[in-house]
Task: inverse folding
């Protein structure tokens, strides 16, 4: 008998009707001969509502108490899900993170999973029940309650699939899979059938709102096949798996755009060991999250360091940049904002040549100027003018023929 | 250093402003040199809202899942309370029933407290924190979550006061104490300063909505002084304590009325051992809750058994009565409905004579006809016509001069 983990996000359990629908899916999977473990998020916008309750009380609530508050959201939805399954005449039991023994480290609001007990779940599955686990939460060894960070119900689901040796992990959401690009910008965007963990990680980090990255890392590490699909249809969605030979034929799997970025350029930085480390330690101390970093050098032996940050960190980052300018006696710090970044991602880049060239040519023909370029083994990113971002995305999508089914 | 337990009901934590007000009370008590443990109910109508969520899903939700659902209400309010105390610059920590080790039996939705751990609470109090405990909930030895029944946050508070050896237990609510009678019916009703556990238990069982009865029983058993008071004023409320000598001078402490009752009379019942037991076992099997029972006998050696039930149980009880009529071959079963019951309660009855006579005389002067009478050591009840109930209450209140301060 196979075991399947099904994860339902907030939109998939937003009201009574949707909870019943999710319950029917789990029942069907069980009737098809599987053991079924469900992982459920808080209903619809309920986590946001809880956060707004907290903000009414305090501008700076203690993180411990936020965890105490927010974990109630999933506890509500798991109990309602169990009621729905019972109402349909089947056996089910809801369990909190603490009750299944999901043990975390002791970092409130962004704890990491240390280990997961399987005894209780296996026992309930043996009793022929559908087991419904609260996502996003756990306890530490002393029984304190922790959350795993926003969106981390995905991580709970994939981690459970790993420790239980599930056949696969289904992620039910409000979209029907992962697309070659954002369909709101390029209507010709096509649903991807199969994609590798590495590609989806790059796509997620380049702005595609797909799944919680930590969940994908878990899947990669523990070899869990993940099926991202719609809770509103029965169509197959996107399978996320290990890289397979046929994937190499696809040079580029997806194209993303990230807007609302700012780019800083520090020119004339002394090119000595430790300088870059010092600069970015300084940036991190101010809580600024750095996106991409580029360093080059000139004939005089000085380095030019460029990096992008989210626009929300802009004012803080300007202060840091000015401190760095003074510390290293730089003549000038350039700040360009807003800027956008378009990226093409694909494992096929490893074995194909001419990919970068094709992308640059497409941008040139569309008269898009490129500020900076960065590449990784499976990704090429260009920072450009945000007014040209949507056009850029569309021409890259067309250049790699992403609107067509792969052979 | 003394320890005080403060319990805040749903109306006392219904919104952010009220939560801040409750937080200030706890902080003040701490600043006055006390250790403070708070017990908090779910916010306002939130328990009702959770129940209605469950009803949207299922007509008959499993009790286990109801407990899983409902305990989130208190978890929300304790975390918000801790945030409010932190925001005011003081240390606090919220703890669930499970976290303090409040162990119950295994009866979902109406579990009973088996034992309460004090180590965790004492440790947090030693760390100079205000400890905020979720009312109404506990876990069993296996970690399953249970609730103690509606209104049972009072019980949590008094039980905690008992095990912690608190100086007293404050019950903050939306009324400013216990009254001699319902002020909506008799505007001359007066707030009672001191009252005994036994009296308040009788008042509660005769229809005065004061406090959860089990909480009072706990207070009596473990000698916890309870102070029922308003969360909106600083006035002293009503102290509930062991019977003291001065209380005996007060013949009647309070007068209550219970409306919407139905009265059944079974006449000509064979007067043999076991008959009453059989009849009421039958009634209980149908889930009908019996209020007062009266049995008398006639010259023929037959018994007449009369009892009152809530009108909500009327149709079910009519079926039971008909079954009993057939089983014992009774000529007739009388059902009178609606009826009302007025009661006078006071420990002074034990040492004073003429109390019943004074009550009957007052009713006679007001031309109130009495159907049946029952008495206990500290209570006299008369079943009457509901149209005369309010008048009856007022004349009894006046006859015992309850509108005047006791000497």
Result:
């Amino acid at each position: 008998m196979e075991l399947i983990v099904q994860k339902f996000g907030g939109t998939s359990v937003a009201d009574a009707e949707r909870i019943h629908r999710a319950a029917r899916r789990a029942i069907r999977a069980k009737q098809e001969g599987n053991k079924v473990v469900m992982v459920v998020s808080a209903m619809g916008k309920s986590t946001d509502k809880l956060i707004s309750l907290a903000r009414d009380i305090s501008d700076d609530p203690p993180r411990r108490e936020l965890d105490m508050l927010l974990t109630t959201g999933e506890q509500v939805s798991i109990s309602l899900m169990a009621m729905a399954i019972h109402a349909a005449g089947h056996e089910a039991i809801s369990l909190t993170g603490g009750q299944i023994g999901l043990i975390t480290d002791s970092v409130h609001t962004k704890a990491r999973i240390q280990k997961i007990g399987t005894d209780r779940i296996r026992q309930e599955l043996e009793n022929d029940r559908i087991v419904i686990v609260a996502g996003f939460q756990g306890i530490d060894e002393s029984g304190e309650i922790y959350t795993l960070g926003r969106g981390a119900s995905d991580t709970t689901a994939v981690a459970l699939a790993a420790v239980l040796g599930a056949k696969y992990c289904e992620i039910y959401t409000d979209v029907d899979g992962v697309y070659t690009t954002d369909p709101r910008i390029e209507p010709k965007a096509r649903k991807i059938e199969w994609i590798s963990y590495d590609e989806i990680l790059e796509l997620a980090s380049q702005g595609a709102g797909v799944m919680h990255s930590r969940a994908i890392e878990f899947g990669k590490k523990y070899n869990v096949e993940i099926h991202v699909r719609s809770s509103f249809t029965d169509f197959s969605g996107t399978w996320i798996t290990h890289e397979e030979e046929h994937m190499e034929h696809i040079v580029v799997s997806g194209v993303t755009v990230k807007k609302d970025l700012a780019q800083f350029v520090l020119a004339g930085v002394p090119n000595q060991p430790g300088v870059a480390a010092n600069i970015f330690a300084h940036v991190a101390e101010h809580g600024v999250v750095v996106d991409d970093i580029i360093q080059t050098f000139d004939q005089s032996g000085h380095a030019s360091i460029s990096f992008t940050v989210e626009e929300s960190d802009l004012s803080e980052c300007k202060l840091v940049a000015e401190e760095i300018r003074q510390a290293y006696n730089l003549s000038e710090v350039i700040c360009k904002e807003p800027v956008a970044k378009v990226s093409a991602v694909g494992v096929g880049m490893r074995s194909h040549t001419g990919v970068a060239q094709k992308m640059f040519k497409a941008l040139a023909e569309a008269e898009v100027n490129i500020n900076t370029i960065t590449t990784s083994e499976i990704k090429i990113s260009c920072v450009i003018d945000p007014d040209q971002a949507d056009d850029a995305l569309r021409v890259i999508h067309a250049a790699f023929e992403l609107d067509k089914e792969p052979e």
Remarks:
- The two ends of chain A are 35 Å apart (CA to CA).
- DSSP finds twelve helices and 18 strands in chain A.
